[in-house]
Amino acid sequence: MRRWRNLGIAAGAAAAALFAAFDVYQWLAAYASDHFHNDFTFYYAAARIGATHGWPSIYDLGLQQAELNAMGSGIGVAQLARFISPPPVAWLALPFTLIPYPVAYWMWSALLLVALAGTWYLAAPGAGRLRLIHLIAALGWVPVIYGLQLGQPGIFVAFAVAGSYALLRSGRPFESGLVLGAIVLKPQLGFLVPIALLVAGRYRAFAGAAVAIGLLAVASGINVGPAGISAYEQRLSFAASVATNRELTLAPYIGDLTVTRAIQAAIALWALVLVYRFHSRPVEWIFVLALIGGLAASPYLHIDDLVMLGLAGWLYLRIPGRPAWSWAFVLAMFIAVEGITEWGPLPLLAGEVVALVLFSVAALKHDDGDAEHHRAEGEHDAGLQRDGEHLAVDRQTESLDQRAGPA
């Protein structure tokens, strides 16, 4: 048995290394063919607009086009080619505008790689060489390499959520919430996590998240002003109307957008109910349920955003006492995402719903177990009470016999 296990690990390591090597090659080839065909270009341009024209102007499409032209990008502002991220993304890119774009891109990429390594260090399961395979496999997974190629901040968000988990486990709840301020970089990836902390009764962690997110939201509003806020709302409204942004959500399968939003809200509520039911279990459950439920309920997703699903998988595999077969389900979800460009998002969406169903069954079994435990305790207590009553009667009889004395 041990031999087969070692062979399986060796095969997994070889496959992961091949995928990782191929994906890194694709990343380098994509950059070589077009230095500017990535999202970091827009963060860089927005930061330069903010520094030169004022931060309320970062959502001005005319200025974005002018800046893209000045960079020599050859990119025209279009449906999927514009800066629509929250202001903190442009703030984060601001120091990089002091150096030439090519150097800035690779320095930004280096930070993303550090964030990926940090996420792995804090959240990946296993130990030793087995744990290292998870890092190599992550580098060869489509959402991760795509996010690296585009320079997407989703990996920063994943690192923050992994850090929040680690801090909560180490008994530092307020700091655990504070690091969730990074969610503002891409809110749709982790919006359910702070709410889940509240539902789970982790009030200090929720307070930390509320402080960090609240301060960054207020600072963003002050930074861009009413005009910038209005422009941002317009950009978000337009993005929500672009069908491509909804391809990985339930919207294409339901059709009616109002009905879709209602179902997505119900899924989010479902996940939070499960968080409440599991609040006394290992802390990993809070994050796993919030991430899976949040992704299934998100109105706006791209392939690179699914890095959060990988984080959820890592955290789930750390849970003690999980079913022995559960690793196979996690692997199936990994494969469903890896081939999403071939067979579409339906296996992924079905897998997310199935995961929530399985977790619901586990919650019901947990309730049944608690009920059985309480019933057994009740019967035990009742037995003790009857024994006590018999003992009291016996003692009373003995006392009467002693008072009567010898006949």
What does this structure look like?
The chain has 407 residues and is mainly α. It has 2 domains: 36-98; 101-370, no CATH class. The protein is 74% helix and 0% strand. It contains 18 helices and no strands. It has helices at 2-33, 40-53, 61-71, 87-93, 101-123, 128-139, 142-150, 154-169, 173-178, 192-199, 203-241, 251-254, 257-277, 284-297, 307-317, 326-338, 340-343, 346-404. Helix 2 crosses helix 3 (61-71), helix 13 (257-277) packs antiparallel against helix 14 and helix 16 (326-338) packs antiparallel against helix 18 (346-404). The chain starts with a helix and ends with a helix. Residues 368-384 and 395-407 have low confidence and may be disordered.
Q: Structural class, from helix and strand content?
A: mainly alpha
Unreliable parts:
368-384, 395-407
Gyration radius over CA? 27 Å
What's the number of domains? Answer: 2
What helical percentage do the residues reach?
A: over 70%
How many DSSP E strands? 0
Mean pLDDT over the residues: 88
Amino-to-carboxy terminus distance: 78 Å
Outline the biggest β-sheet.
Answer: none
Helix tally equals 18
Report the principal-axis shape: globular
SSE order, one letter for each helix or strand: HHHHHHHHHHHHHHHHHH
Beta-strand proportion: under 5%
